[in-house]
Amino acid sequence: MSAVAALKGYLSRRFDEELRFIRVRQESPNVGAILPSGNVMARKMASVVDPSSGLPVLEIGPGTGVMTRAILERGIPPERLFLIELSTTFACRLRVDFPGVNVIQGDAFELSRTLGEYSGITFDCVISGLPLLSFPVEKRIALIEGLLDRLPPGRPVVQFSYQPFSPVPPGGGDYKVEVFRYVLRNIPPAKTWLYRRPWQVAKAAALAAAAAA
Questions:
Q1: pTM for the predicted model, two decimal places
Q2: Rounded to whole angstroms, how far apart are CA atoms 145 and 101?
Q3: What is the pLDDT confidence band of residue 11, given thresholds at 50, 70 and 90?
Q4: How far apart, in whole angstroms, are the C-alpha atoms of residue 62 and residue 130?
Q5: Which CATH superfamily groups domain 3-212?
Q6: Residues 62, 85: contact at Cβ < 8 Å?
């Protein structure tokens, strides 16, 4: 494929994604972004994925699938990627655009119920595109705690925000908040965050030291 044809394909796909996003945003006040996330931010967030772990990856709030595509490009097979999307419109389109990916239409805040038969799965990490600031702080904290319960020691939940502060406040639960990346090449510019459990980080270091001994 020529560079011109590739560019035309990208622009056409991006235009379609933005149109779908705008339509759903008009229907749902809980869609917090003004446009779908850009490719640069998607790749930065997907960089936390460890394809060598052999574990599945969970993405919540995938929307039009920009981050989904970046996760797959990291080398995760479709059958090892699970998406939770509240919007029926987005969920239906994700099934068409990403055959083989496990698309679950439901509420990420009702995590166990929505995952259903997959509730006991351990994931490598979680990529979140949810507009967390649209929800009460208690729900945000409970969500992060529930997600961390499903991760191995030291593995993160990664979340973006258009605000300078973490959408899940530090000190609200058994987790540690870290700034991950600033993404200026996004509309609007964004900041990404990592959430881990302090004891998970310590346990991961201890396991690594024991394995090296």
A1: 0.79
A2: 25
A3: very low
A4: 8
A5: Vaccinia Virus protein VP39 (3.40.50.150)
A6: yes
Torsion from C-alpha of 175, 191, 165, 151, nearest 10 degrees = -10
Position 187 scores a pLDDT of 75
In order of 127, 138, 161, 183, the CA distances from 146 in angstroms are 14, 12, 20, 27
186 confidence band (pLDDT: 50, 70, 90): confident
Strand 102-105 to strand 176-183: parallel, antiparallel, or no bridges (unpaired)? Answer: unpaired
What is the identity of the amino acid at 73?
Answer: E
CA distance 193 to 195: 7
Q: Residue 84: name the closest of 71, 69, 68, 100 by CA.
A: 68
Asked if residues 92 and 101 have their Cβ atoms less than 8 Å apart, the reply is no
